[in-house]
Amino acid sequence: MIETINLTKKYGSFTALNSLNLKIEKGTVFGFVGHNGAGKSTTFSILATLLAPTSGAAYVNGYDVIKEPKKVRNHIGYMPDFFGVYDQFKTIEYLDFYGASYGIPQSERQALIPQLLELVNLSHKQDDYVDLLSRGMKQRLCLARSLIHDPEVLILDEPASGLDPRARIEMREILKELKNMGKTIIISSHILPELAEMCDEIGVITNGELVASGSVASIQQQLQANKVINVKLATDIEKAILLFEDDPKVSTITKHERYENTFTFAFTGSELEQIALLKKALDQELPILSFSQEESNLEDVFLEITKGVDFS
Amino acid sequence: MKSLLINPVLNKEIKLRFRSFKSFLGVFFYLFALGGIAIGFILMNTVFSYNASAIFRPEQSRTMFMVLSFVQMALILFMTPGLTSGVISGERERQTLNILLTTPQSSTSIILSKLISSIAYLLLMMVASLPLYSIVFLFGGVSPALLGATFGLYFITMLAIGSIGILFSTLIRKTIIATIITYGITLFFTAGTAILTMIGMQFVNFQNLNQTSVMPYITSMFNPFIILLASFEEGVTNEINSMSGIEFSLITGFVLSFLLISFICLFISIKKLRPKMKAKKELPEGE
Question: Keyword ATP-binding on this protein (chain A) (predicted)?
């Protein structure tokens, strides 16, 4: 379980994180989405006891991150967005070192490490030097490392960043397996669709503030008050535009550049009002060929949410 | 205590340090430099002296011991900052520190392991140089106790300079800056305090004989070379004691002050390794 209460982090006058309130129940996979520099890594660093917040509180499994950092460390597996490995260290030694760091006895480590390597598909690389592994392999190894003490909470900061599509899929499969194991996972990405597939809940953060959170479907609904409707006519586009312009719920009518007699408009009304609008157009005997709502994907939703945000 | 001695960071550090080819090269060049000087010294006093038939006498052997000890001290002072000033900042730069700090290992154990592994490498070099000292013993003139005392001084020097290196490595993000600062401080402890000692002595000499000044004592107390010289020649200690009017042993003063420096530096490093987790709880009524 993870909980933050009014969590704030300021660097001088710059606010990296502004009163973040999160509550993630046990066994939930929570996706944290935001553009680069939105405050994801700051939140994760605080949860991982690496950064002291300016104000507010954070709890992992009921332990206070500020007051009981040692206990928190035993309950989290943390994977930073950028990390390095030691030179001249073999895969198996790498895991053994971190296992020992968590106080796992040697006999247990010997049994545990092959299992972890199996989980992340690195069994064949156990005697290779870690600095010579590919990026995808390093990410997987780092994930295996974060699991070595069987933590209940996983804090994964962009575990799939910089991976090729195949490595991404592999990473996703491993995460699904971890989800099935009942771990509480908080995972960040700046790619929303990637998260939507494996997360139970999603939080969107921009400029240090949580702008939306909830299930994937509810976020989509919450943020799509604006429907975009495509209209295609046989002829008479000008007449149609004049008619649609009259409706108060219609805005930003745009003629399609490539297709003739086609335009889109934004509509804020309900479904009934949408039907009424179409009926009115048909009553005017406009030769409408199609009248369809544009399916917006999560990417559009993300852009919609972060629209107007100053990224500088 | 057991967990402090057998701990993962120490294990890893020693494994990685002694595995690298660089460490082998380090020992090689160290012995090469020291051995070259020892052989050169013998040659200069025998084959290349006016008296080509001269044999190497115990007094010369003693001088050679002093030369070797000074060179060894110089090498230790030269290497310790390089070995220690990157131990924390280096991990930060290669982005392995964050992961290490999220493990439940205590800051104390991390810092001490780093120090012990660096010193272990220096000790290896020192032990490897022992056969060179056997040349000295071959010709006599030096007691084993003096050798022991000299190695004791090396150890205290490594400890203090190593702790200073670790302190700056912890406080400063960039290894290069931490290294420069550590070398700067080491230079102050050698050349800086030597110059100050000379100025202090001149100052005392200019004044009338009954006057004393604590300055030469204080400055020479921090200079490993002066202390090394004082351990060979009792006259040095006596002169500084009489000039300053302080009866306390100069060598003991050095040992205590360097141990204190080590302790303070390590203490601050341990406190500063992890962020201080102290945040005010925001009151519900307002910001």
Answer: yes
The yes-or-no verdict on residue A263 having pLDDT over 90 is no
**Contacts A–B by Cβ distance under 8 A:** 93
pLDDT for residue B281 is more than 80: no
Reported as a single tens digit per residue, the pLDDT across A32-66 is 888 888 889 999 999 999 999 999 999 999 999 99
Assigned domain for A308 exists:
no
Taking any CB pair shorter than 8 Å as contact, residues of chain A touching chain B are 6, 8, 19, 45, 48-57, 65-67, 69-70, 73-74, 76, 78, 80, 82-89, 93, 97-98, 100-103, 142, 145
CATH code for position A267: 3.30.70.100
Chain centroid to CA B44: 29
Does residue A172 lie in a domain region? yes
Q: What is the DSSP letter of A103?
A: T
How many CB atoms are located within 10 Å of the residue A261 CB? Answer: 17
Number of domains in chain A: 2
Residue A13: CA count within 13 A, CB half-sphere: 0
Give a yes or no: residue A255 inside a domain: yes
Within 8 A of B11 by CB-CB distance, chain A residues are 97, 100
Same structural domain for residues A133 and A246?
Answer: no
H or E stretch at B147:
helix B144-171
pLDDT in tens, B139-169: 777 888 888 999 999 999 999 999 999 999 9
Nearest to A80 among B12, B15, B98 (CB): B98
Backbone angles phi, psi at B96, to 5 degrees: -110, -10
Domain carrying residue A282: 227-295
- Give the C-alpha separation, B264 to B216, whole Å: 24
| Judgement on whether residues A169 and A290 belong to the same structural domain of the protein | no
Within this chain, do residues A267 and A197 fall inside the same structural domain, yes or no?
no
CA distance A78 to chain B (A): 7
Q: How many secondary structure helices (H) and strands (E) does chain A include?
A: 11, 14
Q: Are residues A140 and A260 in the same domain?
A: no
Residues A70 and A206 in one domain: yes
User: What is the C-alpha to C-alpha distance for residues B148 and A80, in angstroms, rounded to an integer?
Assistant: 48
Q: Are residues A262 and A236 in the same domain?
A: yes
Note whether residue A189 is domain-resident.
yes
Ranges of each domain in chain B: 58-273
User: Phi and psi for A126 in degrees, rounded to 5?
Assistant: -65, -25
- Looking at the fold, whether A196 and A59 belong to one and the same domain comes out as yes
* Contact: B19, A103; criterion CB under 8 Å: no
